[in-house]
Structures are given as C-alpha cells and as structure tokens.
User: Fold this.
Amino acid sequence: MQIYLVLALLFSIGVALFAVQNASRVEITLFFWQLKDISLVVVIFGSALLGALAAGFFGVVKQLKLRKMLKQYRTQAESLDTEVGLLQRKLKDLQGAGQGQQPEETGSQ
Assistant:
C-alpha cells in the first residue's frame, strides 16, 4: 500500500514540474466549447485531477462489486457448510443402522 502512495507522490511531483515548466497561454476547443487564453498549468492540473477522479470512481465501483461477490460467496459457503453437516449426520445414522445388519448380497448367480 505504501508503494502506491510513494508512486502517486512521485507522479504528482512530475505533473507539477511539467506544468510549471509549460506555463504558456493556450486555447482549448472541445466540440462546441472553447476556452481562449487559458494557462497551460490550469489545463494540466485539471486533466490530472479529472483522471484521478475517474480512476477513483472506477476503483470504488470495482470495490463495491467485489464486496457484493464476497458476500454472495460467504452466504454460499455457509449454506454448503450446513449441507455438509446434514449429510455427515445422515451418513453416521446410516452407518450406525447398518452395523447391526449383514451386508446384502447382490443377485449375481
């Protein structure tokens, strides 16, 4: 977990250095939306922020899906454990009832 924090910090420092070194004014056009004479620093930081938010959102969605699957698997495991216990009791009952009897011969004459 700490390695991710260190890598994120290094990436952030790299983005900050890149942004500061490229502080010129630019024009941004996206479809019908246009920004004139905006600092490239703002564009770089805004893009990095949107990327981080998107990554965080998808990470949260993945975590929620994994938690849901884990809950389903735990429920299924509990159900199977209960079934195993019932089958083991049935097996003991059948073995106890069968000890007093002779094994039946199959009709192989």
Summary: The chain has a mean pLDDT of 85. The beta strands are 25-30, 33-39. The CA atoms of residues 60 and 66 lie 10 Å apart. Helices lie at 2-21, 40-98.
